[in-house]
Here is the input.
Amino acid sequence: MSQCSIKYQRTDKNTRQKRTDYKQRNYATRNLIDTYSENFADSPGLQHWADIENLKIAASAYAEAQSIKALEQKIAEKKSLFSVARTELVTLEYEIKPYAELLKYAEQYESNKPYHLCSGIVNL
Here is the structure.
């Protein structure tokens, strides 16, 4: 190679455009990926991808916090909200249970009504 071509190559490298910044995802607003389903158990590659995404989400949440105390406070608030929601759900399930049984028996009655009418057991 001649000196001219080497000099041209060096200047060509220096004048290249720099790579433009790409848009980074905002992981702080995303929820963690639940990796306990069957899809993740069957696919180790998908499990690996989900682990990396969960790490990114956790790291961005940690980076947004002003301090560890603030992050611990947020965690405590979320836990308390979860426990309140859980107790409300349990109380609603207890309230719904009698109505569900009543509905089940009403559906059984409706499905068996023609048989009872034909046999003369029900007098309406």
About this structure: Residues 21 and 118 are 79 Å apart (CA to CA). The two ends are 108 Å apart (CA to CA). Helices lie at 3-14, 38-42, 44-64, 68-119. The chain has four helices and no strands.
